[in-house]
């Protein structure tokens, strides 16, 4: 469902993503793990068409996402880190607006379904600016789901949530296993262990591992510690 080959992105003389290749198969939940500044968000922005790669190939559900960006975007839902929302709109108004932009048919039905799937139906008439961080994250997930895409790309979806909100959000994501293809960017090891079938580890813009939790005799924490450093690279992600 997602195929990336030799993906590279430079900012002047600095390489933020360096010759990265990987695949995410239908129905998989795959973690995209790395320390802050490793190049995760830059990679996701290229996958979702918000940023052009310097070189390399991206396939979204078999579509060349570099030359046919709009067609590829129609096959995925993207939840950006921080979930930018219109704070003065009500939840259902915002989702109707987003659904209209995406040309979603049967819009009222799609809004109701996305609210249910994201676990935010009880807040449909609430004003966005008055919601807790956890509910705002769920509205962002509902936005990603409203067009019923087969692929979800989630960038640090539990960032800033309290432990109970994190648990609830992870349960929501686990519910997509086998139903949607999910690529989930995070720097939190426990998130990968709790949710993901497989993990791709990135360090300083390079892929350094692709494994399933439990593949190694060592713990994922030990593998991650060996493969990565916490040093910032200056990546705008």
Q: In a nutshell, what does this entry contain?
A:
This protein has 237 residues and is an alpha/beta fold. It has helices at residues 40-47, 69-73, 91-101, 107-117, 133-145, 163-174, 189-195, 220-227; strands spanning 2-11, 14-24, 29-33, 55-60, 63-64, 76-79, 151-155, 181-186, 198-203, 206-211.
Describe this entry's structure for a reader:
With 237 residues, the chain is α/β, with parallel strands linked by helices. It contains 8 helices and 10 strands. It has a 6-stranded mixed beta sheet with strand order 6-7-8-3-9-10, sandwiched between helices. It has a 4-stranded antiparallel beta sheet with strand order 2-1-4-5. A hairpin with a 2-residue loop joins strand 1 and strand 2. Helix 3 packs across helix 4 and helix 4 packs across helix 5. The longest helix has 13 residues. The radius of gyration is 17 Å and the shape is globular. The C terminus is likely disordered.
Order of helices and strands: EEEHEEHEHHHEHEHEEH
Global morphology: globular
Largest sheet: 6 strands, mixed
Helix percent band = 25-40%
N- to C-terminal separation?
Answer: 24 Å
Low-confidence stretches: 230-237
Give the strand line-up of the largest sheet: 6-7-8-3-9-10
- Overall pLDDT confidence: 90
- Please identify the structural class as seen in this structure: alpha/beta
Number of E-type strands: 10
Oligomer: single chain
Radius of gyration from the alpha-carbon trace, in angstroms: 17 Å
Number of helices: 8
Which strand-content bin applies to the residues? 25-35%
